[in-house]
Design brief:
Blueprint lengths: L1 H26 L16 E4 L5 E8 L7 E10 L6 E3 L6 E7 L4 E3 L3 E6 L2 E7 L6 E10 L2 E11 L1
Antiparallel strand pairs: 1-2, 2-3, 3-4, 3-8, 5-6, 5-9, 7-8, 9-10
The protein binds copper (II) ion.
The site of copper (II) ion has 6 residues, from loops.
Length: 154
Amino acid sequence: MRARANAIAALHLGAARAVAFTLLLAACASPKYPPVASATTAAANASFASHAAVDLTWEKMPTEMEMGSFLFQTYRTSTLAGTEVPQDLGDTVSVFLWMPSMGHGSSPVTVERLGAGRYRASAVFFLMKGDWEIHFQVKNGKDISDEAVLAITY
Ligand SMILES: [Cu+2]
């Protein structure tokens, strides 16, 4: 139960940071990303508890008939230079789709590492219209050691 409680705490922390990150960007002169709570047609981003962040760009939107795919990058923002530095998570990152209002997911999603901190998620499919969460999970064996959650409306 401890592992599960930790995962939930990380989830909430991730969501809170995602909101804070968006507000921070909104205050900048040239925000690089649209708000987190965007539709699936736009790029979006979320943060891990460990200060790393992830951004997502749809490559092919899933439809009611076909699975889709998106590219994502994991990175850190250098506090000195303010620039984004790739944060490679190796093969430890997986993607999990969850519909919180109904307590079910949609799986499995395939993750392919393309390069340092660059990934493609394919076989992305949402079972129904509504509010979904895309969970980016960093796993240490079976345990989820970190997680970023992106809320989307499909
Ligand atoms: Cu549902």
